[in-house]
Task: inverse folding
């Protein structure tokens, strides 16, 4: 077997690994209630010199433990919590948390659902703590930070819940703060496709790109001082 | 920021790179997944290979919860070395410090101090000193604090405490004795003291506008402790002592003292600001936080050995003098030279330097950066074309100039701190084709440069009486430049013993001297006219060789002695190297002139023409610098990169059909 085959095998294995952690679009019963699992699309953003971020595109996102039975949550944490512990939903300019299992938001027990505000701390069961913030006033997209040591099975710096735009740039109020980037890169979703827009001259997979372009699985976006790769997790 | 390997590259079998993490002083670090999904950090060792590998191998089997675990060292298909390490996902102390510009809470300080002390004392207990302790090398992890870059560690042994071949460290945290090449565990204690100071106050104790200034302060200035709570001052004062023997003896002792003090004192209490003009008012300005801490000072063997701390301090002192004052001092020295009567060579030197610089500027205007060894990709507006599997890395001009104590604005250093400092001492791979192109280009350019410099001498002085003498001067200058450029370019990027190189150049000097002696006969130039005014002494024989024949003309042996001495005294390969500080440095040419004056002075009694000899020295230096290929700092790279596109073309390791040399050549074009 040559090394090229090995590389393909490796990629296939990793894609399979990602697929194994995905939630199929379906209805799931939790404590007798029907819980709508999300048709969420998940991407990994591997950003050179910055980190790895999970980008979730959809209206509703399930938070829970990973499963080996193809029922993993959108935000799957290696933690002793339910596989569908809570959901975060986006409606208009508002974010709501629906608790399926014991959950508190900034110390308040959530009986059914509650509105999430930027700066809230979500606690799942007793030990899992997540931060919720909306860093930019230009966008309602939110970020889930891992406050406790509980994280997904691979290193992720945070999860971006995409409502409209995701800003990658040098400022602290950008969703992903890339301090050494000279320009802002905007990610957004149209018709189920993830797209990218920037004033900076970017190339995608080595080809000079226009002002905006589709981001497909495996594409590498490169600029003068930046580079990131997009992987679709489903 | 550019990194060598693109996402999904597999430089090592079994590991897939997902993203680049950062570029440190000793290599690039990538986040990678094994085929089974295990997260690792892969560190590509680009430079200081011997040091790094030696250190890493010593630490390969160390296990401690406060040290980043090293799993293995591997070699890729290009024979580059990789360190496979534990991936630490948490933030670095460096990042955490940014959240506390006025100082961290005590609880946080104690957390970091405890972790660092545990890791360091484990290392020290095993006879290993870290040597590069800094906030950028300390990380927070779910398991606690982790110290990284343990690969830089060095065994503490009495025999090698002062026998370092290279000094490596970070300027803000560098202990004074590092300038002498001394690395005991005290350097870690000192660095920890600086970090403690920074954690408490939010700023480092020794800051400055230039790297040299910071180094100078480490060597001579006392830290301003007035911004610390009073109870803490004695602890940090003892930790930051200049003399390692008087410093706090161990890292555990430092932690013990600190904990004892803070148990009774309130170190979070605000410290009153000092009045303007007082010592405290001169506390360092809060520096721009970036990966400035990555700035690495890299002193080569020769500099460390030949330039003891006193000389280094003088150099640093000179660099720290404001530019106007430097001109005043320079003027005084010039006056002294004029008074001493040796003004003619100096005047000629100034003329040659001025004409050479003017020529260089003109060439710059018409052809951009002339004769650069490599192209300047950053000047193009379009995005870098293909996403290379192996991209070239860049080094900043500021970072490059930051080496060897030169005046570089600290802010400039800050902006480019992740970049490596590249100097002629930097080991690197250079493709044969590139090396050959560089040599031939340099030789070609030396023709024009020799003509230019000779024209300056001819027009400005009466050393050369006619055009035949000018042709002779130009021919000898050019031959000498060739004899220096060719071997120096062959040595470029490689390790080599300074003595052997000097011996080699000295031998070539003998050859050039011989040609210089016999050439007048072929050009029908009268010796009397050429060497008019030379000292006519008695004949001097060394064995059977006539060094002086009493006719007033230098003998062949005398010529050979002059050029051999000139070639072997200067470190010419630094003037030729593509990674030299600037294409043309007047100071370097003037120093060569001084060497020339000294040598001709020694040969004066053997009828060697002093003015002509000194002028030759200066002219050769000018021609060599103007001709030799030079890479602008921002384009400096360590290893060339084939333009391969991931997802379309596999990396080199999996594509045997892409020849390395061809790919490397492509990257230069």
Result:
């Amino acid at each position: 077997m040559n090394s090229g085959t090995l590389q393909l095998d490796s990629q296939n294995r990793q894609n399979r690994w990602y697929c194994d952690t995905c939630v199929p679009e379906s209805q799931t019963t939790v404590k007798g209630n029907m819980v709508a699992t999300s048709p969420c699309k998940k991407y990994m953003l591997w950003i050179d010199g910055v980190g790895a971020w999970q980008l979730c595109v959809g209206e509703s996102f399930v938070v829970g433990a990973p499963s080996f039975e193809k029922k993993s949550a959108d935000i799957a944490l290696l933690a002793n919590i339910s596989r569908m512990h809570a959901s975060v939903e986006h409606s208009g300019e508002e974010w709501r948390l629906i608790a399926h299992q014991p959950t508190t938001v900034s110390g308040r027990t959530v009986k059914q659902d509650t509105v999430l505000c930027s700066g809230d701390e979500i606690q799942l069961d007793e030990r899992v703590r997540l931060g919720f913030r909306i860093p930019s006033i230009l966008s309602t997209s939110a970020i889930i930070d891992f406050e406790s040591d509980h994280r997904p099975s691979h290193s992720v710096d945070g999860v971006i819940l995409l409502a409209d735009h995701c800003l990658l740039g040098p400022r602290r109020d950008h969703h992903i703060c890339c301090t050494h980037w000279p320009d802002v890169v905007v990610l957004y979703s149209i018709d189920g496709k993830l797209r990218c827009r920037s004033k900076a001259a970017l190339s995608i997979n080595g080809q000079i790109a226009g002002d905006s372009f589709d981001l497909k699985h495996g594409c590498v976006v490169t600029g003068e001082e930046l580079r990131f790769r997009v992987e679709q997790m489903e | 920021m550019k990194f060598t390997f693109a996402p999904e590259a597999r430089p090592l079998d079994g590991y897939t790179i997902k993203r680049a993490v950062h570029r440190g002083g000793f290599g690039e670090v990538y986040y990678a997944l094994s085929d089974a999904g295990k997260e690792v950090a892969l560190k590509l060792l680009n430079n200081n290979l011997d040091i790094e590998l030696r250190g890493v191998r010593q630490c390969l089997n160390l296990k401690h919860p406060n040290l980043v675990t090293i799993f293995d060292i591997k070699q890729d298909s290009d024979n580059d070395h990789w360190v496979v390490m534990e991936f630490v996902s948490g933030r670095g102390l460096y990042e955490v410090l940014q959240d506390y510009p006025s100082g961290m809470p005590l609880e946080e300080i104690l957390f970091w101090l405890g972790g660092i002390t545990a890791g360091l004392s484990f290392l020290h207990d095993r006879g290993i000193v870290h040597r590069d302790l800094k906030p950028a090398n300390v990380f927070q992890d779910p398991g606690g604090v982790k110290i990284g870059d343990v690969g830089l560690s060095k065994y503490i042994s009495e025999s090698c405490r002062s026998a370092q071949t290279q000094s490596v460290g970070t300027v803000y945290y560098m202990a004074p004795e590092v300038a002498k090449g001394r690395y005991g565990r005290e350097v870690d204690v000192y660095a920890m003291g600086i970090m403690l100071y920074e954690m408490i106050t939010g700023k480092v104790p020794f800051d400055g506008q230039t790297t040299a200034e910071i180094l100078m302060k480490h060597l001579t200035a006392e830290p301003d402790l007035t911004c610390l709570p009073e109870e803490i001052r004695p602890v940090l004062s003892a930790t930051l002592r200049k003399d390692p023997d008087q410093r706090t003896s161990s890292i555990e002792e430092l932690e013990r003292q600190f904990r004892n003090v803070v148990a009774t004192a309130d170190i979070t209490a605000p410290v009153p600001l000092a009045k303007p003009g007082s010592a405290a008012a001169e506390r360092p300005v809060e520096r721009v936080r970036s990966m400035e801490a990555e700035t690495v000072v890299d002193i080569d063997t020769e500099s460390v050995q030949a330039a003891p701390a006193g000389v280094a301090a003088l150099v640093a002192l000179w660099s720290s003098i404001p530019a106007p004052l430097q001109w005043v001092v320079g003027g005084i020295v010039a006056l002294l030279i004029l008074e001493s009567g040796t003004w003619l060579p100096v005047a000629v030197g100034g003329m040659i330097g001025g004409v050479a610089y003017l020529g260089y500027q003109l060439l710059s205007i018409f052809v951009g950066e002339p004769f650069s060894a490599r192209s300047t990709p950053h000047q193009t507006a379009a995005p870098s074309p293909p996403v290379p599997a192996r991209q070239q890395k860049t080094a900043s001009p500021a970072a490059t100039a930051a080496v060897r104590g030169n005046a570089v604005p600290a802010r400039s250093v800050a902006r480019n701190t992740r970049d490596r400092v590249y100097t002629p001492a930097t080991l690197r791979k250079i493709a044969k084709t590139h090396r050959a192109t560089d040599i031939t280009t340099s030789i070609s350019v030396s023709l024009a440069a020799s003509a230019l410099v000779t024209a300056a001498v001819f027009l400005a002085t009466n050393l050369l009486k006619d055009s035949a003498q000018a042709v002779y001067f130009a021919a000898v200058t050019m031959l000498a430049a060739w004899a220096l450029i060719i071997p120096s370019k062959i040595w470029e990027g490689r390790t080599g013993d300074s003595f052997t190189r000097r011996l080699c150049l000295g031998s070539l000097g003998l050859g050039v001297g011989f040609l210089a002696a016999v050439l007048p006969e072929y050009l029908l130039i009268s010796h009397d006219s050429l060497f008019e005014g030379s000292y006519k002494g008695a004949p001097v024989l060394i064995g059977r060789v006539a060094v002086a024949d009493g006719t007033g003309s230098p003998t062949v042996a005398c010529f050979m002695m002059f050029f051999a001495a000139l070639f072997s005294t200067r470190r010419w390969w630094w003037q030729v190297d593509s990674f030299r500080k600037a294409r043309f440095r007047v100071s370097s040419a003037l120093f060569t002139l001084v060497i020339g004056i000294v040598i001709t002075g020694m040969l004066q009694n053997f009828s060697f023409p002093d003015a002509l000899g000194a002028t030759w020295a200066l002219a050769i230096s000018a021609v060599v610098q103007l001709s030799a290929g030079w890479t602008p700092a921002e384009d400096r790279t360590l290893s060339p990169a084939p333009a391969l596109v991931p997802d379309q073309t596999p990396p080199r390791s999996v594509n045997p059909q892409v020849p390395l040399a061809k790919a490397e050549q492509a990257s230069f074009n």
